[in-house]
Amino acid sequence: xxxxxxxxxxxxxxxxxxxxxxxxxxxxxxxxxxxxxxxxxxxxxxxxxxxxxxxxxxxxxxxxxxxxxxxxxxxxxxxxxxxxxxxxxxxxxxxxxxxxxxxxxxxxxxxxxxxxxxxxxxxxxxxxxxxxxxxxxxxxxxxxxxxxxxxxxxxxxxxxxxxxxxxxxxxxxxxxxxxxxxxxxxxxxxxxxxxxxxxxxxxxxxxxxxxxxxxxxxxxxxxxxxxxxxxxxxxxxxxxxxxxxxxxxxxxxxxxxxxxxxxxxxxxxxxxxxxxxxxxxxxxxxxxxxxxxxxxxxxxxxxxxxxxxxxxxx
Length: 314
Description:
The chain is mainly alpha-helical.
């Protein structure tokens, strides 16, 4: 491995600056969370974002760090970000479904219910069923959110979390690096490692089903969620290197919408399987499920348009 000139930043310099900045962001969000309950949502968002960026960078650039330390901290940060995400996810899902029910209740383009009388029958059935469907979804998702909130509070009060916070506090001032790899040139060390994330992402994208011409299939959601995860890791790698991530961010937003819609569709399907619900409630949940499936398909198409843009007209 060629060594850099003393005037050039090394791989360790660049990675260290990024990790220290994210550790500082983590600690800032933690102070906000502890100081202001009204800002707990924003603070949790900041904690999740910083934790994901540190964990993703430690995964991509593991060879540049002390690997045992990196593996341990990455595992703990993945646990923390996942725990913090659950409460927000349930709240956002409920809000999304309530807004969709309200929008659909005024839509003239509804499928006719069994035994219904065309558009007027569909609108009537949805009006009758939407209130009950909304109440059912609110009970189920509020319960899930309450459990997630309890899990978050338990996690943030645990010795495990305090150990993570202590490790991040140390990271804010000192990054444990491999003494050889960290001295290497950016192009020799960091760029090839970042390119591996691009290769994995490209492989996952190429394996996705066609965005058009095929009906929605829920079992395909997992492959899209994996692309979203790999895209996020790749974007963080490019952030470390100071690259332009605008296209990656736009593609990630499309996949975020895909995730939100697919999970909302799953929630409406779960609610529809509740025993002994009224036919009008089941109809409203079925319309809601179809609406979210359409949103999934739209998000998939949007991602493909971003990732494979049409050639410019001469």
